[in-house]
Amino acid sequence: MLTIQNLCKTFNPGTVNEKKALSGLSLHLDKGDFVTILGSNGAGKSTLFNAVTGAFIADSGRILLDGKDITFLPDYKRSTFIGHLFQDPLKGTAPHMTIEENLALAYLRAAKSGLGFSRIGKSDRARFRELLAQLDLGLEDRMKQPVGLLSGGQRQALTLLMATVVTPKLLLLDEHTAALDPATAEKVLDLTRRIVAEKQITCMMITHNLASSLQLGNRTIMMDSGRIVLDVKGEERAKLTADDLLEKFHAGAGKKLDNDRILLSAQ
Amino acid sequence: MISLATLQTAAEQGFIYGLVALALYLSYRVLDIADLTTDGSFTLGAAASAMLATLGHPLLGILCAMAAGAAAGGVTAFLQTKCRVQPILAGIVTMTGLYSINLMVMGGKATLPLLKVDTVFSWAEGIFGEQLGALVLAALVAMAAGAAMVAFLGTQLGLSIRATGDNRDMVAASSINPAFTTTVGLCIANALVALSGGLMAQHQKFSDITLGTGMVVVGLASLIIGEVIVGRGGVVRCVIGVMVGSIIYRLIISIALRSSLGASNLKLVSAVIVGVAISWPAIKDAAAFARRRRAAKKEGN
Known about the structure:
The structure holds two protein chains of two kinds.
Chain A: E1 2-11, E2 19-29, E3 34-39, H1 45-53, E4 60-65, E5 68-69, H2 75-78, E6 82-85, H3 99-107, H4 122-135, H5 152-164, E7 170-174, H6 182-199, E8 202-206, H7 210-215, E9 219-224, E10 227-233, H8 234-238, H9 242-253
Parallel strand pairs in A: 3-8, 3-9, 6-7, 7-8
Antiparallel strand pairs in A: 1-2, 1-4, 4-5, 9-10
Helix pairs in contact in A: 3-5, 5-6
Chain B: H1 4-30, H2 37-54, H3 58-81, H4 87-105, E1 111-113, H5 120-128, H6 133-153, H7 156-166, H8 168-173, H9 178-204, E2 206-208, H10 215-230, H11 235-258, H12 266-278, H13 280-300
Antiparallel strand pairs in B: 1-2
């Protein structure tokens, strides 16, 4: 499904701010994998995502998706089959456009012929309504309202919907619930679980919640200094506790997990 | 104070210059780019339309003006998106280059009078009557352009352009190529500006190399006056506001001209109008703040 070979990226090379963000990272995901990713501050988690979505081109290494080499594909072309959610709920939607207009944009990813002159029609509206009703947030009755009026949680739920209405081959979730209050975060996480399972989307999720990193998905990896220091799945993972994870990280990285936002227990 | 004739002239000019304001709605409000190409492409449109009118092809002149304007917008967009020139500088670079091109189009002359030649306005006067011909044509073109803009911004391509200006983070993630949408937006905007220039040249029966000077500021003033009066809302409301604002701007100018101010002070009058119009939101905020503080003081004592 997704194969990353020996990926390297150094920011600001040759300056005092030189930062090796990815140092020879390799990773293989099978179809339907749901991987949770943990790591210290600056371990390269978001950099890995940005390399996969094409926000920058890696210095060396290759990225293959579904057997296709996408290493040099521009970001807007990759986004036809890769969905990406950020921590900031404001990043994924256009605030001055209405909910239905935002959803119409999400459907552009399905349009193979590029950009067209078709408009939002009655059947589109009916379909949008149905989709929004699934979120259970009452958004189906507010389709003509600008997205800027929604709360952070509502916007993130809408972004998740937009990223998955056209089923992506790969979904990248970069702490997408971290900026939300606990109750809303739980709701968005539930929604994520449901949509990913329903559509059988291959998914990677960065989290700072140790417990949920073990509950969610079928595989957990931990990163440090731009490489993977721990990769567990199957039975080995099922038996792990949050404390075991910390110990294993210590053994693999040679230091303690240093993340000022890490949550050690489930709340 | 305002005679019917003044009103009619203001409406004619308002509709024609309103196309510039409509273009700036697209580039400045929708795409969030202050496009200084406008000054150059207005003159380019005037030059192309006047030149072809003197050769006996007024309508072809208007169409060529639009095509030339779109090309100018394309150059600016290319500089911005492919060469990473800052948006404002990209516009200035194109505008500067256009000065020479505009002179070339006008056959090396700084002024090109259109005496005793057919124009689209003389045709309109033949159809709708001497009295109202120009006004009817200007209004029809402005309304058609406004309606086309509303329709276009509702299409997939239009929505993509709006998203590009609204949230640049999300466009690439929606498989929209921002370079492409910016290019389309700037081409359409400058085609509209050149259409305005082309109509203006035929309306006032001459083209001049300085016609476009300060056009960005004039267009922005109209846009903002319209927003203050009609309000900002959906696309339809904004497009209506653009035309209303443009006509009011022309009225203000004509009143200023007829009062003791005189023609030589016209630029100063424009600058003051624009300064006040653009700072209007800040003035409103400051007034609200002062009110709020006064109220708090009263309560405190």
